[in-house]
Structures are given as structure tokens and as C-alpha cells.
Q: What sequence folds into this?
């Protein structure tokens, strides 16, 4: 049996191969940080959702990529989960003084990331290259990869009409009922060579506890991504973002309900049916094991809530051990 956390097989020491994790924002970043702590340096690649990216004041903002990047670099704001620690908002105050509605809280240090990213993208670099450059300077030892280089924009159908993702999530505080999800630009998106390589060379693939509709959903919707994952014969394990019928963070529970999915760990497992072969649920949801097993998945029941840093690494090690049992 391979112990992913210690014997790193033939891939030990190579950058970005070994374990590949799919992640959205705050919840995904926590498990990614645990995996990074549990694995030898350079053995983790993370494919992050970029469908909640948008333009604001002329800058390209990539919230999920940045949340993962700051978390893995150890500089994330611990309270919010997004943004940078020890942040100030003086530029935002000035923007507000000019009469703009400063609804999206861009900190001064965070602004540097958006300014440089925008400049490099305009100069013709791919988002994959720009992200690698920023993450390297911040000291991220894992390979952080956007799901695609092309712009994709999650647009939500609500009773108030179509809303851009950040409009729904931040400006309107997730109060609208989500009746449909459209991923604008997804047909033109392509799996970057780096993502294809990260998945093909991975010895285990982990679906972080991120929103299955608007975080993992867009990653799986990039043309060719689902096939790459299903064709891979390595263990694929998802961690439930729903515990005790509620989302660990954000509006996933309400979104699942309004879109007609069952709001439970089993409901999320059903969305990954045919792709993952293992599913991790919290002890609160232990009774769902039979239903999830019926989907053809092995189930691991554990404490799946990450309250602090030791929790992240403990859960990551449990997930890695579960993967080794599935080989
Ligand atoms: N989330 C908020 O709830 N309010 C904000 O003002 C906000 C600002 C922000 C700035 C930079 C960044 O990278 C993320 C930011 N987020 C904010 C988080 C983010 O919009 C969401 O968590 C994700 O898009 C959902 O995954």
C-alpha cells in the first residue's frame, strides 16, 4: 500500500506532481493548505476555479486563485479566509471618496496582486504563467493552476434577473434565490497543458470541500476536464462541503436546494457520481454511508470540519490515507 503522506512513490521531489486537488475559495484553500503541510514539498498541484473572476476598476480580480495562493503562502487573512493579513484599505477609501461604490473590499496589499496580474495579462502572458510568477514570489511551494486561461464568468439566474457572480455573492450578500447557473465563455475554455499534466501525472486526485455548483462545477465544465478525470485510474476522493445538512461556508446549501439537488452529503456525492471513487463525510452524516455506497463510492467518516490549522493537516492526512486504501 502506498502511504501518500510519507513514501511519495516515484514522483518524490518533482514539482507539481503527486497529488492534484480541485478547489474553489475559502473551504478548498483550507484543505489544500492541509495537503501542502502533509506532503513533501512540491508534490501538490491545485486546480482552482476561475469562473468567479471579474473586472473591477480596470483590474482583473481572481478571488479563488488568490484565496488559495494567500492561504498556501501563509499570508491569508485568518478572519475572513480571503484577502491578505495585516491589510489596510486606504486606496479603497480614496476610491470611495471619488464617488465610487466600494462594495468589493480590495485591500492595499491585495491591490498589488491585481495591478501586476492585469499588467502581465495585458502584456500577453497566460493566467497560468502570471499565477505561477506571483505564487513563486510569495513562496508557495505547491503548483497553483487556474482551471483555464480563458475568461469564464458565472452568471446566476435569480428572481431579480441575471446576476454576475460577485454581484450576487458580495454586493447582494447571497440573498437571492439561485434558479439557474450559466458559465459564460466556457465553450471557448481549454484545459491548459499544465492542468492536463498535473492530472495525468497525479497519483491521487482530491475534490476539496468547495461548492459543487459554482466552484467545482465550473472546473468540471471546462471542455475535456471531465474526460481527463474519468480516464485517470488513480484514486479520486471528494470531501463533502455539506455537514449535517448545512454548508460549511457560503450559500451552497441554499443553492443546492433551489437548483433541485438534495441538501446532504449524499446529494453532493450524487453530483460526483461516475467521477470519484471515494467520498469523505463528517461523523454527523455517518448514516448517509449506505446511500453513498450505492453510488459506487467507498465512504470514509471522520471529523470533516477544519476549525484550525492542525485540523487541516489532520483531515488532509486522513484523506491521503483513504486514497492509499483505494489504490
Ligand atoms: N468576499 C466578501 O464577502 N466581501 C468582499 O468584500 C470580498 C472582497 C474580496 C477581495 C479579494 C478577494 O480575492 C476575495 C474577496 N472576497 C470577498 C471573497 C470572494 O469574493 C468570495 O469568497 C469568492 O468569490 C467565493 O468563492
A:
Amino acid at each position: 500500500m502506498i502511504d501518500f503522506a510519507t513514501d511519495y512513490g516515484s514522483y518524490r521531489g518533482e514539482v507539481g506532481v503527486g497529488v492534484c486537488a480541485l478547489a474553489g475559495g475559502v473551504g478548498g484553500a483550507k484543505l489544500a493548505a492541509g495537503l501542502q503541510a502533509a506532503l513533501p514539498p512540491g508534490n501538490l498541484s491545485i486546480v482552482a476555479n476561475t469562473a468567479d473572476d471579474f473586472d473591477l476598476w480596470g483590474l482583473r480580480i481572481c478571488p479563488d486563485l488568490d484565496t488559495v495562493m494567500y492561504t498556501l503562502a501563509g499570508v491569508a487573512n485568518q478572519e475572513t479566509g480571503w484577502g491578505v493579513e495585516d491589510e489596510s484599505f486606504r486606496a479603497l477609501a480614496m476610491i470611495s471618496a471619488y464617488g465610487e461604490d466600494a462594495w468589493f473590499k480590495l485591500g492595499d496589499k491585495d491591490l498589488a496582486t491585481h495591478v501586476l496580474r492585469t499588467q502581465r495579462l495585458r502584456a500577453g502572458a497566460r493566467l497560468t504563467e502570471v499565477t505561477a510568477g506571483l505564487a513563486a514570489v510569495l513562496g508557495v511551494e505547491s503548483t497553483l493552476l487556474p482551471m483555464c486561461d480563458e475568461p469564464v464568468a458565472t452568471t446566476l439566474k435569480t428572481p431579480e434577473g441575471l446576476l454576475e457572480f460577485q454581484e450576487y455573492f458580495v454586493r447582494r450578500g447571497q440573498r437571492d434565490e439561485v434558479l439557474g447557473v450559466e458559465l459564460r465563455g466556457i465553450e471557448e475554455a481549454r484545459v491548459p497543458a499544465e492542468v492536463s499534466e498535473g492530472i495525468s501525472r497525479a497519483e491521487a486526485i482530491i475534490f476539496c470541500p468547495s461548492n459543487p455548483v459554482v466552484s467545482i462545477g465550473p472546473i468540471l465544465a471546462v471542455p475535456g476536464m471531465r474526460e481527463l478525470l474519468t480516464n485517470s485510474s488513480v484514486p479520486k476522493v471528494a470531501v463533502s462541503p455539506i455537514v449535517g445538512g448545512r454548508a460549511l461556508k457560503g450559500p451552497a446549501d441554499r443553492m443546492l436546494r433551489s437548483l433541485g439537488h438534495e441538501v446532504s452529503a449524499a446529494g453532493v456525492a450524487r453530483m460526483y457520481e461516475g467521477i470519484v471513487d471515494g467520498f469523505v463525510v463528517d461523523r454527523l452524516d455517518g448514516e448517509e454511508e449506505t446511500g453513498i455506497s450505492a453510488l459506487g463510492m467507498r465512504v470514509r467518516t471522520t471529523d470533516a470540519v477544519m476549525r484550525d490549522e492542525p485540523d487541516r493537516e489532520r483531515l488532509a492526512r486522513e484523506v491521503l490515507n483513504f486514497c492509499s486504501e483505494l489504490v
